[in-house]
Task: inverse folding
């Protein structure tokens, strides 16, 4: 009987049964494999191509070089949570709030930030977290919010952040958003719709304006005003040339081009002397960083004042073409005027510096911060001194740990990223601390002592926004005063709700840096202060 069954050919019904059984078995095996394999991204995160986007207080999968610093943040976040849920040695529980760092944590050849820039920004943010957690008041978790290497995965990030504002440990603010792009502006509007205050540490395009978006860096307009003061003292021969990035989705470069034309177009003839190029960042079609035509045109017109409307990583290629252009008269000085957060390391390498000197080219950079001037300065204000102490302590701790090697580079402060991200976190933590003191101080004053033994009340995102908007510079009979403002690592500045300032920092110092050395006979412009006209040039 059995042999007869084995030798019998399978009929249609038998084949269907075998197919069904096979499918069920394969599904079962797949289910077991998926359950046994670790999740790719983890809680609060979801896969978007090769990235894990979303929000976490733990370890975020990012570039491998960032692992040590990311783990350091996760460890501090865990310590903050334990200080509330399981305090040690009989200590009182310390409540905490959350502040989210929203930016990319992965890179490729054309992405918004390099691994080095991410590391410097994250290090500055973590240094600010550590300093805030060493002070009285609530503690702070630094959430890592990855919105994708191209900043276009912001929607799930904002949705998750919005759901955290009413948690027991509430989200009180967001900072980061490292590039002036349409996606950044959309994300800022979405955060504003949820009334979540956001700080842009390095946003400069004048288009970056949303209801709850503050900017600690000056705008391109304010940078141009600082360059105007420099050019008033050093006008040159009056012949200018405009070189600008033509990428369609780079709001920064497009805005800077229009600002340069508006401020200097007529005086320096920029409308009739200009050229464009395709920048490296982005996915526009074409070969990027081609400056041959621009270099020949600059030399042909004998322009001595070049206005660069592009990003720092493209600038060395323009310098290279100018330095090697046969039609250029390198016996005459040329200056390239630009704006930036600081002096980017890629513009001050040994090779670039040698080219600048041989071709008599000077970079003139209106910046958010000039950390190069800190070297050997024994009279640094408290803001940069406190930052340097905390940052160097963090660097030493990670440097001594073989598992925590960081890609910060040999000039981790020059581009200003660490400083500006430190200041952005500080704005939110300072506002939170002030609101916390006000809320609980009033509570102590209106209730009996027996009624105030319960846990203190934590401020919410609305309280933090209402505090930041009043971190202003005050005009007094004896001059401007900083009572509620920010004494940051990048200088003293404030915010207000004026339609004239549009949530750009007020009285923010804007140094003008010359590199590699001041051109012969140039006069220093001094330190311009943003919106200083409000205080008749008497910013504190």
Result:
């Amino acid at each position: 009987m059995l042999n007869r069954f084995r030798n019998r050919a399978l009929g249609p019904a038998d084949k269907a049964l075998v197919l069904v059984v096979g499918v069920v078995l394969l599904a079962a095996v797949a289910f077991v494999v998926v359950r046994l394999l670790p999740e790719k991204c983890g809680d609060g995160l979801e896969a978007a191509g090769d990235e894990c986007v979303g929000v976490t207080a733990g370890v975020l999968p990012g570039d491998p070089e960032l692992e040590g610093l990311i783990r350091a943040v996760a460890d501090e976040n865990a310590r903050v949570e334990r200080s509330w849920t399981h305090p040690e040695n009989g200590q009182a529980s310390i409540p905490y709030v959350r502040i989210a760092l929203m930016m990319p944590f992965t890179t490729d050849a054309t992405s918004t930030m390099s691994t080095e820039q991410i590391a410097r920004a994250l290090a500055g943010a973590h240094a600010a977290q550590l300093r805030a957690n060493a002070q009285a008041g609530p503690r702070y978790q630094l959430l890592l919010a990855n919105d994708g290497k191209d900043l276009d995965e912001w929607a799930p990030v904002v949705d998750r952040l919005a759901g955290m504002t009413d948690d027991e440990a509430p989200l009180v603010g967001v900072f980061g958003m490292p590039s002036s792009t349409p996606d950044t502006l959309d994300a800022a509007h979405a955060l504003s719709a949820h009334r979540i205050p956001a700080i842009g540490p390095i946003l400069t395009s004048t288009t970056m304006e949303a209801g709850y978006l503050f900017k600690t860096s000056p705008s391109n307009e304010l940078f141009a005003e600082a360059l105007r003061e420099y050019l008033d003292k050093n006008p040159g021969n009056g012949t200018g040339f405009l070189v600008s990035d033509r990428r369609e989705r780079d709001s920064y470069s497009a805005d800077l081009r229009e600002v340069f034309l508006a401020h200097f177009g007529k005086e320096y003839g920029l409308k009739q002397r200009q050229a464009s190029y395709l920048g490296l960042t982005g996915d526009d079609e074409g070969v990027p960083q081609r400056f041959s035509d621009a270099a020949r045109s600059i030399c042909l017109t004998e322009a001595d004042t070049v206005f660069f409307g592009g990003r720092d990583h493209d600038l060395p290629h323009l310098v290279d073409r100018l330095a090697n252009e046969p039609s250029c008269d390198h016996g005459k000085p040329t200056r390239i005027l630009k704006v930036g957060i600081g002096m980017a390391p890629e513009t001050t390498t040994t090779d670039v510096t040698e080219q600048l000197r041989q071709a008599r080219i000077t970079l003139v950079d209106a910046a958010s911060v000039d950390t190069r001037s800190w070297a050997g300065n024994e009279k640094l204000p408290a803001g940069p001194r406190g930052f340097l102490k905390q940052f160097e302590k963090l660097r030493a701790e990670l440097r001594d740990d073989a598992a925590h090697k960081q890609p910060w580079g040999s000039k981790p402060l020059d581009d200003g990223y660490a400083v500006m991200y430190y200041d952005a976190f500080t704005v939110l933590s300072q506002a939170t601390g002030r609101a916390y003191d006000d809320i609980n101080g009033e509570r102590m004053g209106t209730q009996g002592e027996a009624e105030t033994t319960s846990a203190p009340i934590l401020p919410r995102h609305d309280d933090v926004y209402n505090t930041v908007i009043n971190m202003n510079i005050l005009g007094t009979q004896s001059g401007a005063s900083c009572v509620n403002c920010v004494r940051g690592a990048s200088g003293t500045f404030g915010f207000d709700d004026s339609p004239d300032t549009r949530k750009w920092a007020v009285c923010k110092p804007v140094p003008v840096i010359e590199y590699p050395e001041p051109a012969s006979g140039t006069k220093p412009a001094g330190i311009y202060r943003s919106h200083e006209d409000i205080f008749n040039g008497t910013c504190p």
In short: The longest strand covers residues 96-103. The first helix runs from residue 2 to 7. Confidence is low (pLDDT under 50) at residues 1-10, 23-38.
